[in-house]
UniProtKB/TrEMBL annotation:
UniProt keyword ATP-binding present: no
Protein name: Fe2OG dioxygenase domain-containing protein
Keyword hit for Transferase: no
One Pfam family here: DIOX_N
Species of the source: Eruca vesicaria subsp. sativa (Garden rocket)
Essential cofactor(s): Fe cation
Segments passing through the bilayer: none
Length: 366
């Protein structure tokens, strides 16, 4: 009976098509039962607040002006950046980049556009509400709404912007143009980081790009409304990303945490910077050389909503028959392949059929 009640509650929430923002606008003072995290999760949240590990910080890498200047750097500078990237990808799976070449003005317009979409009238937003990944642009709440133990306190917009950008007329008027402009800049930044990662593996700079790791981009805009009981839920539950690489822009509210050495570490916002993380697909093809770290977002009681823009280098749920396997140049007798061959579409099916808190890579182990 309980599971039926839970299913009905989520179905009713879905049919409203107004997301978590709609609950907040209705004036609720207590969160619905479906959003209440299990006791073990709540305990980990309390433990992280008291942990001395919070003094730790993810690595920061100065990209020395971004892709425009990268190829003109002297050899020693380039080697230092590659070495910093290697260490961050192997030990953390997360790092921050500065001096990347994307203007603060464009970052702020992008964040403002995401906020503007989520804060417009519900009737305008509803026309975009869908879970159909064949659409140019769509809006929904909780990608794992019907699979997870508890729902998370956030709404999402999503758009596949590469390799086939949508037409501007298919995007919301409130920020369609800035999405396309921002996507081009993120693609350029992503290509630079893939070059650094390729060299960090001892491969040619174009190796990962030639494997199409930088070909496809899914842009999302996350909106975390103020929560009346932030200690009882999460903005997004613990997960790793189904991508080769993720480029994250976040506003000034904070709440992102990464699991490092069995402890939750805060990743506070730093204006103008981006947070980069390795995804499951890159851990897979590097045979665990680089790590796809689990992370989460804490709910907040701030008076303003938290906004972030994660951009995923992946085709995600779009059909993609390409088969990947661990890169042969990285393998040896002492380092045999740890994973079986897998198509991106099969990987997507694994993602869709399981709770996102279950590590997907375990299912591909040889």
């Amino acid at each position: 009976m309980k599971s039926m009640d839970r299913s009905q509650e989520r179905k009713a929430f879905e049919e409203m098509k107004t997301g978590v923002k709609g609950l907040v606008d209705s004036g609720i003072t207590e969160i619905p039962a479906m959003f209440r995290a299990p006791p073990t999760i709540l305990a980990s949240m309390k433990a992280s607040q008291a942990s001395h590990h919070q003094q730790m910080k993810i690595p920061t890498i100065d990209l020395k002006g971004g892709s425009v200047h990268y190829k003109n750097q002297d050899l020693m500078t380039r080697r230092n950046v590659v070495e910093q990237t290697r260490e961050a990808a192997e030990k953390w799976g997360f790092f921050r980049v500065t001096n990347h070449g994307i203007s603060l003005e464009l970052q702020e317009r992008m964040l403002g556009g995401v906020r503007g979409f989520h804060e417009q009238a519900s009737q305008v937003k509803k026309q975009f509400y869908s879970r159909d990944h064949s659409r140019s642009f769509f809006y929904y709440t909780n990608i794992d709404l019907f699979q997870s133990d508890s729902a998370s306190w956030r709404d999402t917009i999503a758009c596949y912007t590469a390799p086939d950008p949508p037409r501007s007329q298919d995007l919301p008027a409130v920020f369609g143009e800035v999405m396309l402009e921002y996507s081009k800049e993120v693609m350029s930044l992503g290509e630079l980081i893939f070059e650094l990662l390729s060299e960090a593996l001892g491969l040619s700079p174009n190796h990962l790009k030639e494997m199409d790791c930088a070909k496809s981009l899914m842009m999302t805009g996350q909106y975390y409304p103020p929560c009346p009981q932030p200690d009882l839920t999460l903005g997004i539950t613990k997960h790793s990303d189904f991508s080769f690489l993720t480029v994250l822009l976040q506003d000034n509210i904070g709440g992102l945490q990464v699991l490092h050495d069995q402890a939750w570490i805060d990743i506070p916002p730093v204006p103008g910077s981006f947070v980069i993380n390795i995804g499951d697909l890159l851990q897979f093809i590097t045979n665990d050389r680089f790590i796809s770290a689990e992370h989460r977002v804490i709910a907040h009681g701030s008076s303003n909503a938290r906004v972030s823009v994660p951009c995923f280098f992946t085709t995600f749920k779009k059909a993609n028959p390409r088969v990947y396997r661990p890169i042969k140049e990285l393998l040896s007798e002492d380092n045999p392949p740890k994973y079986r061959d897998c198509s991106i579409s099969e990987f997507a099916d694994i993602f869709s059929s399981k709770d996102i808190t279950i590590p997907r890579l375990l299912q591909l182990r040889i």
